[in-house]
Task: structure prediction
Amino acid sequence: MDGDLFFTVTHPFHPLSGQRFPLLAQRRAWGEWRVFFHDPLTHRVRSLPTAWTDLAPPDPFVILAAGHAILRFTDLQALHRLLSNLQDTESEAGS
Result:
């Protein structure tokens, strides 16, 4: 079956991570691009976000950061809010 397209699940926490599947279709569904494939265990057609596969376009941040930065500015802002909320919660509990 030369010319058939395959994809690999790349999401590190997905149970199918590292597995390769023949691609049935790739289309927009549920507000995002998804890959559709036949699951050999359940014998059903399943889908995953394309972003969780090797078919996803490379992340521009990862390319530009070239290993020098692990967090985007928005990630740092979210981390700051989380830590501030935790600190406020601990302060209230200690009062």
Q: What stands out?
A: Residues 1-56 form a domain with the SH3 type barrels. fold (CATH 2.30.30). The longest strand covers residues 32-39. The chain has a mean pLDDT of 90.
